[in-house]
Structures are given as structure tokens and as C-alpha cells.
UniProtKB/TrEMBL annotation:
The gene is BnaA07g03020D. Pfam families: Vps35 (PF03635). Plays a role in vesicular protein sorting. GO terms for biological process: intracellular protein transport; retrograde transport, endosome to Golgi. This is Vacuolar protein sorting-associated protein 35. It is a peripheral membrane protein. It comes from Brassica napus (Rape). It comes from the Eukaryota. It is found in: Cytoplasm; Endosome membrane; Golgi apparatus, trans-Golgi network membrane; Prevacuolar compartment membrane. Belongs to the VPS35 family. Keywords: Cytoplasm, Endosome, Golgi apparatus, Membrane, Protein transport, Transport. InterPro entries: ARM-type_fold (IPR016024), Vps35 (IPR005378), Vps35_C (IPR042491). GO terms for cellular component: cytosol; endosome membrane; Golgi apparatus; late endosome; retromer complex; retromer, cargo-selective complex.
Length: 788
């Protein structure tokens, strides 16, 4: 046997034990080869004595045990051959019990017992009962555990099960179950007792070692699950109550967690469904430190998978009231464990919700009930700040969206927004983003104002900053991405009914205008677009196409647009407000609403004068004014003259001379519209072109004075192109002489040849004129008159 010297380390003990083991195994094999039963028993007993050590860790002891297991298989074959040669198996069974030490004696007894069962000279149940009782002689936790593991291993194919060759009378199945249960109970007791072996400072090490041995105990439950005779009735009446009794009574955290998980994993799902109340009844009785969250979550995952793979069993879930039992069990577990972390409670309800959504997708009341139970557990705890708990809460809230792919269904859950309120500001934004992504991914249309109101309550983390704590900094890129997602969402809020659609955009306005100024530049533009789309859908006849009692009209929508755009300059986003005013003016133009169009233009002009000061922004804004005003046909003479006069005035006041020149010649288009005879004033067109030419001359002189060189002629070439455009349109005031004069002016400029880009531009213009001549017709005849 291995010496128990205090100074020896484990590797040396194992090496010494293995060497002695190998030596005795050699002599045992030599005795077997010579058919010497007496010596075979002698050396096998000495070999097995090496397993009596208390100095090896479970891992090292397992190494030694596996060597013994291999040698005992050889010995079992030898015993079988001896019985065939005339040796009485009964005598053999008694002979092995003469070994001096109890541990080798019991290993040999189990080996001989296996042969005894094979010979069928006695009922298997009697031999197994004898063996399982005799093994009580070893009470050392580690040695006893491996001995009983050996007994379980050699007996698993010799149990008197239904269909087995060792099946006896009608009650032998019960005997087989009783044998396995008794062996399981004793093994669990030994396993649990290991925690008390050694000093308290080594507790963590012992727990790790115990975890390494758990499969030895769990194999008994696996054997039970494989027995043909263990049907639902026997499982419900005998197996499960006995196993649960042992689990609850052992009062050991590691054993309770592992064995509960073992039950869930090894026995059929059908059995779990039919015995839910029994299985769940044991959960509140477990130790408070047991990870019951994981155990119940795995149970619900298995039942969900079972329902998904076998749809015909769904009625049974309702029949056994699986949901109610699980919900009640979770409540009792949380109640029994007063110190249960929020994370565990939320995870349990998250698993229950997933179970409900998979098994009872048509029962929204069940899903809402889960959320209600979750609220009950969270009540009084305020905002959740535990990172893992909030992540799990987001998972719980995401489950209905992932299952139904339809936010509208989630909006029917009355407790959904109440659970959402327990998230902090950051996680509310995360959850809001999840909701919006679900809508966009599934192209879900929210078609009523009531549902839109409910949806905005769910995503208020993105559209409202009133409840954000002071000092909370949000990354600008993240903020922009979030607000852009809200902007995209607006286009999914749509109704074919104009009145309902107006209610929707009114709800959006109320939320957006109270959401803080920094969000307005993202949310107002898509809201304006939605309102403009609504205007296009209105019938054209009359100001109030829905009759006297109608709640929406083009005029009312324009008033709505004016109200929301007014909020933008304070954002501050004057450039954006300016553009939106011009868009609305164009929409009013299509609706023949002159006063409204004029008001929108007036607001745009005010913003231009008071808010837009950057020279580049002014140039861009003026181009937009001119372009929009050119397309307007609704204005009368007086209003149009006022607006065009203002536009030309703005053009002359730009800071840079080239910008002035381009803006002034662009204004010429405001006085000549080919399709409107009322807006064809050739004199004012010519006046604009001449004024642009004067400014171009002035710009060139300023450049010459400041830099000592002649300025570029590009502006002159651009003005020439405007002359050609209006000449081609047939404006009488733009004559052949004026065009030829411009061409000659450009040719006389010294800087033309020194500026390759200007020279190329002028050459392209001349080629265009030549091309127009070759086209023939009226246009060709007009260009023929120009002498280059």
C-alpha cells in the first residue's frame, strides 16, 4: 500500500502506488495464465489494496482506479472461465470474501457477483441487493464513491429490466429501480460528506474536487432514464419523489444544483411536463445559494424545444397548466430566497416569457402576466443600475419583438411600458433603438394615432431628454445615429385615412417639440415631409374637401407646418428652417394658396436677413430663393414684384463681387418664364444682364488694382452664356449686337490666353454656337445672324 509519509508529495505517492499496482497485476496475470485461482485472488487483493490510500486527490485517485478497472475486467473473464471449467460460482462468490481488507474484498465481491448474475444460478435482484448492502462497509467518501461507481458500472447491463435477459417476475423492474436508487442515495451521501474532509481553509479546493466527481453520481440517474420499465407512472410515483427527497435532504449547494440539472437533462420532456408540480415543488426547498435561476431556465428551454419539435403536444401544455405552474413556482422561489439578486429574478422571468412566447404565442395575456409578475418583483427598487440585470431586462423586453416581428403586438401588452420604466436613461435608449430596428427590419406600419402615442412612450428615451441626469454625456456620433433612426421611423407611421394621418403627425409634433432643441434638426424635417405628402393626397377641389365637419384641410396642415418650422431657428438650425420654408412655399404654390405661400417666403426672407450671415451660406440660400421663386406661379403681380425685388436686392449686397455677379444674372430668370406670358419682361432681363456685366468689370478692376494683374474673364463668359440663353428664347431686348459685343469684349481681354480654364470655357461656348447653327430651323437661323 502507498505509504502515508507526511513529506511525500502526491506525484510520488501515485508513482509508488502505480509501481506496486503494476507488480501485483503482473503476478495476477501470471496466475490467471496458469489457471491458479488461489494466487489470482491473492495478488488481485494485494493489487486492490493500493486503492485504500487517503493521500491522493480525486483526479489522481481516478488514475489508479482506472488501472484497477482494466485489471478487474480480466479477472471477471477468468472467473467466468473457471465456472465453465466446473468451479461453483457460489463457492467463488464466498471465496472472494476471504480477502483480508474490506475494500479489496468488496471489489472482488462485485466482480464475482457480476459473474454470478451472468450464470443465472440465482435471481439478479437478490445478488444486486446483496452487493449494494455490502458496499455500505466502505464509508470513506472517496473510496466508497469509486467502489459504488464500479458496482454501477458492472451492473448496468445486468439489471432485471423489461426485455432484459435477467428479467424475472413481474416485480423485478421495481427491484432494478430500487437497486439504482439505493446506490444513488448512498453515493450522494458520500459525495456530500466530502465537503467536511479536511481543514476549512481548503474548502474551495475540495469544492473543485467534488465538482470533478459529480458525473459518478449523475450516472445513476442516467441509468434510471434508460430503463425500459421506468414508464411515466413509475417515474411520477417512485423515481422522481425518491430522487427529489434525497436532493432536498442533502442540503448541499453543489449537489442540489447538479442533480436538479441532471434530472432535467436525462429524463424525457414528456415526463417533465406531466410531473411539473412535483419537480417545481422542490425548488423553493433548495438552499438559498443554489443557482435555481439556471436550473429553471434550462427546464423552460427544454420544454420550449419540446413544444417546437412536437406541435401535437401543445394541448397538453394547456391541459397541465404548465404556464401557471411555472409562474407560481418562480414566485415561490423568489419569495423563499429573500436575498435573490435582481439579475436572477429578471432572468427567471425572461426565460418564462420566452417559454410562453414559444409554447403559447397566441396567448398575449400570458406574456402580459409575466411582465406583470416581473414588475411586482421590481417594485420599490427604483431604476436598475446593475449592468447585467439591465442587459437581461433588455433581453426580456426584446423577446416579444423577436417572436412576433411586429411592434403592434408588443403595444398591446399593457405592462410592457411599465417594465421599460425600470431601465435607466442609457438603457432606455438602447431599448428604443431595438424597437425602431424591429419596425424598420419588418417594415411595420403603425396606422393609428393611439398606437403611435403608445410607441412614442416606449421610445421616449430617444425623443425626450427631460429625465436625463445632469452631467450625462452622450457621444455625438451615437446621438446622431439614434436621432437618424427616429427620423427613419417617422416614415413608418402612416395611415391611408387623411384625418387619421393628421392625428398621427399632430401626436409626433407634441412629442418632438418637448424633446429638447438639439433633436429638432433631426426630427422636424421628416415630419415636414410627412405633412407635405399628406397635402398631396388631399382632393384639389375647395379649401375644405371633407365638408363642414372635416377636421383636416390643406390650410390647416400649412398652419401646422408653420408651427413646427418656427421651432427650428431656436434649435439653432436657421439654415434648415430656411430650406423647409421654401419647400412649404412650393407646396402652397401647387395648392394655389397665395397668402400661405407668401407667408412662407416672408419667413424665409426674415431668416436670410437675421440668421444667415456666413457669405457662403448666403450664396447658397440666395440660389435656393431664386430657384424656388422661379417655379412659383401662384403670386399676383404685386406680391411677385415684392419678392423678386428683394431677391435682386440681396444679390447686390453679397460680400464678394463674383458672387454678386452670378446672383444678379441668375435673377434674370425671375423676369422671363417661357410658359407664363405674364412673367416675360425682357427689359428687366436685359437690365439684370447689364448690371451683372458692370459688376464683372468692377471685380476685374479690383483684382487688377490689388494684385497688379488682369483678373479672370470667366465671369464675362458666364454672362455671354446667359445672353445666348435668352437670345435663343427670342427675347427682343437681347439682340445680335449685344451678343456680338460680349464676344468681342471677351476676345479683347488679355487674360484670356493666360487662363487655360477660361480659354477652354470660351472655346466650348463657341462650339455650342456653331452646333446650334448646324441644327437649322428657327434656332439655327437665329444663330446664323451672329458673326463671331
Amino acid at each position: 500500500m502507498i505509504a502515508d509519509g507526511a513529506g511525500e508529495d502526491e506525484e510520488k505517492w501515485l508513482a509508488a502506488g502505480a509501481a506496486a499496482f503494476k507488480q501485483n497485476a503482473f503476478y495476477m496475470q501470471r496466475a490467471i495464465d496458469s489457471n491458479n485461482l488461489k494466487d489470482a485472488l491473492k495478488y488481485s487483493a494485494q493489487m486492490l489494496s493500493e486503492l485504500r490510500t487517503s493521500k491522493l486527490s480525486p483526479h489522481k485517485y481516478y488514475d489508479l482506479y482506472m488501472r484497477a478497472f482494466d485489471e478487474l475486467r480480466k479477472l471477471e473473464i477468468f472467473f467466468m472461465e473457471e465456472t465453465r471449467r466446473g468451479c461453483s460460482v457460489i463457492e467463488l462468490y464466498e471465496l472472494v470474501q476471504h480477502a483480508g481488507n474490506i475494500l479489496p474484498r468488496l471489489y472482488l465481491l462485485c466482480t464475482a457477483g457480476s459473474v454470478y448474475i451472468k450464470t443465472k444460478e440465482a435471481p439478479a435482484k437478490e445478488i444486486l441487493k446483496d452487493l449494494v448492502e455490502m458496499c455500505r462497509g466502505i464509508q470513506h467518501p472517496l473510496r466508497g464513491l469509486f467502489l459504488r461507481s464500479y458496482l454501477a458500472q458492472i451492473s448496468r447491463d445486468k439489471l432485471p429490466d423489461i426485455g432484459s435477459e435477467y428479467e424475472g417476475d413481474a416485480d423485478t423492474v421495481t427491484d432494478a429501480v430500487e437497486f439504482v436508487l439505493l446506490n444513488f442515495t448512498e453515493m450522494n451521501k458520500l459525495w456530500v460528506r466530502m465537503q467536511h474532509q479536511g481543514p476549512a481553509r481548503d474548502k474551495e479546493k475540495r469544492e473543485k474536487e467534488r465538482s470533478e466527481l459529480r458525473d459518478l453520481v449523475g450516472k445513476n440517474l442516467h441509468v434510471l432514464s434508460q430503463l425500459e420499465g421506468v414508464d411515466l407512472d413509475m417515474y411520477r410515483d417512485t423515481v422522481l419523489p425518491r430522487v427529489l427527497e434525497q436532493i432536498v435532504n442533502c442540503r448541499d449547494e453543489i449537489a442540489q444544483y447538479y442533480l436538479m440539472d441532471c434530472i432535467i437533462q436525462v429524463f424525457p420532456d414528456e415526463y417533465h411536463l406531466q410531473t411539473l408540480d412535483v419537480l417545481l415543488g422542490a425548488c423553493p426547498q433548495l438552499q438559498p445559494s443554489v443557482d435555481i435561476m439556471t436550473v429553471l431556465s434550462r427546464l423552460m428551454e427544454r420544454l420550449s424545444s419540446y413544444a417546437a419539435l412536437n406541435t401535437e403536444v401543445l394541448p397538453y401544455f394547456l391541459q397541465v397548466e404548465a404556464f401557471s405552474k411555472l409562474n407560481n413556482a418562480i414566485g415561490k422561489v423568489i419569495e423563499a430566497q429573500e436575498d435573490m439578486p435582481i439579475l436572477s429574478a429578471v432572468t427567471l422571468y425572461s426565460s418564462l416569457l420566452k417559454f410562453t412566447l414559444h409554447v403559447h404565442p397566441d396567448r398575449l395575456d400570458y406574456a402580459d402576466q409575466v411582465l406583470g409578475s416581473c414588475i411586482k418583483q421590481l417594485s420599490g427598487k427604483g431604476k436598475i443600475h446593475d449592468t447585467r440585470a439591465t442587459k437581461e431586462l433588455v433581453t426580456l423586453l426584446s423577446a416579444p419583438l423577436e417572436k412576433y416581428n411586429d411592434v403592434v403586438i408588443a403595444l398591446k401588452l399593457t405592462n410592457y411600458p411599465l417594465v421599460l420604466d425600470y431601465l435607466d436613461s442609457e438603457n432606455k435608449r438602447v431599448m428604443a433603438t431595438v424597437i425602431i430596428r424591429s419596425i424598420m427590419k419588418n417594415k411595420t406600419i403603425i396606422a393609428t394615432a393611439e398606437k403611435v402615442e403608445a410607441l412614442l412612450e416606449l421610445i421616449k428615451g430617444l425623443i425626450n431628454d427631460l429625465d436625463e441626469p445632469q452631467g450625462l454625456e452622450v457621444d455625438e456620433d451615437d446621438f446622431e445615429e439614434e436621432q437618424n433612426s427616429v427620423a427613419r421611423l417617422i416614415h413608418m407611421l402612416y395611415s391611408d385615412d387623411p384625418e387619421e394621418m393628421f392625428k398621427i403627425i399632430s401626436v409626433l409634433k407634441n412629442h418632438f417639440l418637448t424633446g429638447g432643441p438639439k433633436r429638432l434638426k433631426f426630427t422636424i424635417p421628416p415630419l415636414v415631409v410627412s405633412a407635405l405628402k399628406l397635402i398631396r393626397r388631399l382632393p384639389e377641389e375647395g379649401d375644405n374637401p371633407f365638408g363642414k365637419e372635416a377636421s383636416v384641410s390643406a390650410t390647416k396642415i400649412f398652419q401646422f407646418l408653420n408651427q413646427i418650422i418656427e421651432a427650428l431657428p431656436s434649435a439653432p438650425s436657421p439654415d434648415l428652417a430656411f430650406r423647409l420654408y421654401l419647400q412649404c412655399a412650393e407646396a402652397a404654390n401647387k395648392c394655389d394658396e397665395e397668402p400661405i405661400a407668401y407667408e412662407f417666403f416672408t419667413q424665409a426672407y426674415i431668416l436670410y436677413e437675421e440668421e444667415i450671415s456666413d457669405s457662403k451660406a448666403q450664396v447658397t440660400a440666395l440660389q435656393l430663393i431664386i430657384g424656388t421663386l422661379q417655379r412659383m406661379h401662384v403670386f399676383g403681380v404685386e406680391n411677385r414684384d415684392t419678392l423678386t425685388h428683394k431677391a435682386t436686392g440681396y444679390s447686390a449686397k453679397l460680400l464678394k463681387k463674383p458672387d454678386q455677379c452670378r446672383a444678379v444674372y441668375a435673377c434674370s430668370h425671375l423676369f422671363w418664364l417661357q410658359d407664363q406670358e405674364t412673367i416675360q419682361d425682357g427689359e428687366r432681363v436685359l437690365r439684370c444682364l447689364k448690371r451683372a456685366l458692370k459688376i464683372a468689370n468692377s471685380a476685374q478692376q479690383m483684382t487688377s488694382a490689388a494684385r497688379g494683374s488682369t483678373g479672370s474673364v470667366t465671369l464675362f463668359i458666364e454672362i455671354l452664356n446667359k445672353y445666348l440663353y435668352f437670345y435663343e428664347k427670342g427675347i427682343p431686348q437681347v439682340t445680335v449686337e449685344s451678343v456680338e459685343s460680349m464676344i468681342q469684349l471677351i476676345k479683347n481681354e488679355e487674360s484670356l490666353t493666360s487662363d487655360p480654364s477660361a480659354e477652354s470655357f470660351f472655346a466650348s461656348t463657341l462650339r455650342f454656337m456653331e452646333f446650334q447653327k448646324q441644327k437649322g430651323g428657327v434656332v439655327g437661323d437665329r444663330y446664323e445672324q451672329i458673326k463671331v
